[in-house]
Amino acid sequence: QVQLQESGPGLVKPSQTLSLTCTVSGGSITTDYYYWSWIRQPPGQGLEWMGAVTSSGSTYYSPSLKSRTSISRDTSKNQFTLQLSSVTPEGTAVYYCTGGRNQLRTKGTDYGSRGQGTQATLSS
Asked: Where do the DSSP E strands lie in 1-124?
């Protein structure tokens, strides 16, 4: 089973860009049929799927975040990255990266393997 670890700044100012990296171990991000997603959980709220990159490099985004979200990957480092632009305080949340196989999950709580999460506070 793959392991995932998020990394990135804990504090970002409004209007700036949040950049987070997920490092995957125990398997390759190019393994067939995998979907590598970013999800987040604001305080007191449920999980929100933000977007994903597939093992072949295709990307999918939540319609509500599509204009501000970019997900990319670095196969040489076995990493994938989230960039969320023009952040607001409402984006304060714990951000998780996940890896699931065979099906792109965009809601619910089962996204496959998940990192421990990283707190991102979007405040001046």
From this structure: 3-7, 11-12, 18-25, 34-41, 48-54, 59-61, 69-74, 79-84, 93-101, 113-114, 118-122
- The values of phi and psi at residue 109, to 5°, are -120, -10
Exposure string (b/e) for 19-31, b if CB count within 10 Å is 16 or more? bbbbbbeebebee
Give the total residue count for the chain. Answer: 124
Rounded Cα gap, residues 105 and 123, in angstroms: 30
Please name the helix (run of DSSP H) or strand (run of DSSP E) that holds residue 107, with its range, or none: none
Percent of the chain surpassing pLDDT 90:
94
